[in-house]
Give the backbone structure.
Amino acid sequence: MTSSSAPAKVGQALSPANPPKAALTLLLALAPLLPAQDYLDQAVERARRDFDVPGIAVAIVKDGRVVLAKGYGVRRIGQPEPVTPHSLFRIASNTKAFTAAALAMLVDEGKLRWDDRVIDHLPAFQMYDPYVTRELTVRDLLVHRSGLGLGAGDLMFFPPTDLTRDEILHRLRYIKPATSFRSRYAYDNLLYLVAGSLIPAVTGESWDDFVRRRIFLPLGMTSTGNNTQFLESAADVAIPHSSNGGKLEPLPHENVDNNAPAGSIVSCVDDMAKWVMLQLNHGELNGTRLFSEAQSREMWTPQTILPNPPAPLPALAPVQPNFRTYGLGWHVDDYRGRKLVWHSGELAGYYSRVTMLPDLNLGVIVFTNQEQDGAYHSLAYTVLDHYLGVPATDWVAVFHQLAQKEAADAQAITEKSGAHRNAASRPSLPLTAYAGRYRDPWYGDILIAESSGKLSIRFSHTPALTGDLEHWQYDTFISRWHNRTLGADAYVTFSLKPDGSIDQVKMSPVSPLTDFSFDFQDLDLHPVR
């Protein structure tokens, strides 16, 4: 593979054992910019093997230069096309920092302020609580402390739905809060859609066009887009993968454009290196300033304090931060006593991490086309330790051990639940009585049908959420989704009225490893008569 910057290309081109004297002089001059790559190559290949990842792309930025941009493995399992520095991946929630930067640019221009009330720019906007509607600020949209629960309402866009952005914005008002306003951190995606909607409100230009024109183009991010069509029309694309019963499978591209400001950007490590250099240089790159140093500081300033539980394994103690916070579109923590600014991104088949140590003027980008966060975490910390000059830790082994522990713990919880099951119990009603249309205030309709003595379930806005209902015990069933790569089977429990008719249906994930965006527990389903 070739690197994306001139210095690294020169280093690769002049790699024979006896380079010319002039070339050797140039190599010595560039030595501080060229990492000893063997340590990383070995770690990546082990991560690919241990976490079963077909392809990985990595870029390293140091002191304003790209010192490495490289692809490893293949774009699609079973096919030879390699991952390159230009291979496209979804960056998922790493999109959030772009939305924050777009708003920072408008703050610089005086078109809005961080502490403006949202309703002053979006008069029709509503949350469930009128007080929150009145007091919610632009800043509140980005810092995950609105009172919404973890991933609340994500089922309106993930897995892909037919709801529009405007429909999702309108339905926010029906999602009940989980905590009081500004009292607790809970990661959300939908308020970034609101944040993106501020851009057309104050500029007349869509979030999509603004980000392309004001960020991608000035930075020369020519291989970066922000919608599914861009991804599907490109040639060099890393195909997403997921595990199905222990066997890796390629996935179709999912369309999450209806919540684009939270996670729709598609990019490559070559382009993302430019974004990271801009961030490390506090808003300016190659003479072009996108946002001020003041706004750079604001985005990297802790806004919300996060819980900081103990490390789940003793070997993870070195990566356990002293504090965990969230800024504006970025996590702001510490690593080995130094400020750490980072974010991860996870969508079906695409997991990524962008990490910066500002004190070292160092940035690391890791893209993968598999659903294993241990791969990107282990590689990021491997690179950070290399530049910090600390003794090497086998982070791939540590995070692989963590993944095994999490899987074992989840299995134990699931088995414990099964141990209390009364398998001899029967449903209270004939199966035909459970069939019907059920409605949730914010999601909409879910359909349950009976055929040949079996029940099925279908989410009306979400084609992927179609499955069979297997009886579990009493009036609880388990939804087994036809798409087994979702990893999101759910309990479906019917509550009855005194007269024996169905009053309510509640759902909850079966496994604790279910992605939080499957927020089944937030649904409040009632029969539609």
